[in-house]
Amino acid sequence: MPLRPLNRDQTWMLPPTLDVLLPDDHPARFVAEFVDGLDRTQWAEMGVGLDGNPRGAPAYHPRALLSVWLYGFMTGMRSCRKLEGACRDQIPYLWLTGWQHPDHNTLWRFYRAHRGSMRTLMKCSVGTAVEMGLVDLAVQAVDGTKIQGNASRNRTYDARGLQKLLDRTEAAIAELEAQNERGNDPPPPKLPELLNRARGLKDQVRAAMERLVNETGVVRVNLTDGDSELMKGRNGIVAGYNAQSVVSPVNPALGTGMLITAADVGNNASDSAQLIPMLEMSEGMTGVHIPVTLADGGYHTAANLGEGERRGDTLVMTERYHPGVQGPYFKDRFVHDPAMDRYLCPEGQWLQYRGLRKANGRIEGPFRVYRAPRAVCRACPAFGACTKDKHVGRALWIGPHDRLIRKHRQWMATEQAQRLYDRRKGLIEPVFGILKEQMAGRRFLLRGISNVSAEFVLLATAFNLRTLWRCRSSRSSPGPNPPTVAAPVTA
Predict the structure, then answer these.
(1) Which residues contact 122 (CB under 8 A, 6 or more apart)?
(2) HSE-CB for 447 with a 13 A CA cutoff
(3) Residue 351 maps to a domain
(4) Contact predicate 278/248, CB 8 Å
């Protein structure tokens, strides 16, 4: 097979343009069309002016800077220095900027000034999808994933650890000050670097100790990122955040994939308190109440079941059972007699109402307590399996939410609920996989929960733009078809 000639000095017969070098269906074109479709109201919501300042040197256009950041998040490039390099030598970025080369300081200043208000871009992406009929508004899935923060877990200390670190730091400062003593010589005009860092660490440790004293519920502090918390992820314990997402499938008639309809970040490892706020956020984004929500056992609480019933939600989520919950003598097997307010046990004995009790360590209550006679339980063939209490017999503690929990267990045992729940993993898990693997979202680059939340929302927006671009590309329409950017949907 002959070889093609290699000539690195090859010239063009006709001068090329960037537009010729970028394919018509390239995602960078879709990003530019999305940004160009934003109206002045949406730019104003981000605090960005489009008219510039007549004085001073010409500034880069905000449309170019926003396009660079959105396309960078779509392709896993979230560092302003890497984006600076891409704007010099990568065709998609050169096309987005019109062959201009913003440096990393320019890109960073734009991102720092407007990232907090870029949540409006996610509203626009969801609104665009809803307006195009791309979102399947019949079902949604919610879940959280642990993402490592820009901090080391070894820099997380409790009160005792901070005191030890403070003692070591003060000893090091005293030693460094002794080394820098020069008798009657004047002090140096500038502190030595090691001493300066040690004093800075001392101030940092004292501020962390004050936070432990003054803030309720804070038991440990990370000295690098004070808002991050130790959380258990799939790769071990990390100092990070709990990133929450609500996902709906794309309308099967128009394409494949998923769309993130709500995204937020918290520093509590538990998911349970996030369910209702995330559903309300999704409803605000789409303007529609999606009736069916799929969730795992981390969201299963009586409070969530009660609020879901009030909202009219069909919650499809498993329960974190304790070992005896499926046994033959679990309290769900006892039949209530509302006329006499008593319960019939599986062995045919009655448990009578004995009064109200408040359980130790339990927030909910009071509980209605029903108990069988001691002599009956000791003579029962199920003694030892149903109860081992020889003194008072078997007791049922019926809380204020038992009706909801029992009703939900019965619903989850149906074939319809099982069929719906089987969709959960295939709907939400691939989204986190794409965010982490393809979009480099395994670790946050910013620090502080407000900054991290803005970073994750922009990551979710970029995910939605990928889905919208792919759905449009799958249609066999010739040439680019600019998307109509919808205004944020209001519920």
Answers:
(1) 260, 263, 285, 457, 458, 460, 461, 464
(2) 9
(3) yes
(4) no
198 & 293 share domain: no
Rounded distance between C-alpha atoms, residue 212 and residue 298, angstroms? 28
- Residue 471 domain-assigned? no
Same domain? For 298 and 445 the reply is yes
Number of domains in the chain: 4
366: preceding bond cis by omega (within 30 degrees): yes
Q: How far apart are CA 255 and CA 231, in angstroms?
A: 36
Burial of 362 (0-12, 13-18, 19+ CB in 10 A): exposed
Q: pLDDT tens digits, residue range 161-185?
A: 999 999 998 888 888 777 766 555 5
The pTM (predicted TM-score) of the whole model is 0.86
Q: What is the pLDDT of residues 6-25, one digit of tens each?
A: 888 878 777 788 888 899 99
Please check whether residue 129 lies inside any domain of the structure. Answer: no
Residue 95 lies in a domain: yes
Q: How would DSSP label each residue in 81-137?
A: HHHHHHHHH-HHHHHHHTS----HHHHHHHHHHHGGGTHHHHHHHHHHHHHTT-B-T
Considering only the C-alpha atoms of the chain, give the largest distance between any 2 of them, rounded to a whole number of Å.
103
Query: Which domain does 96 fall in, by range?
Result: 18-51+58-117
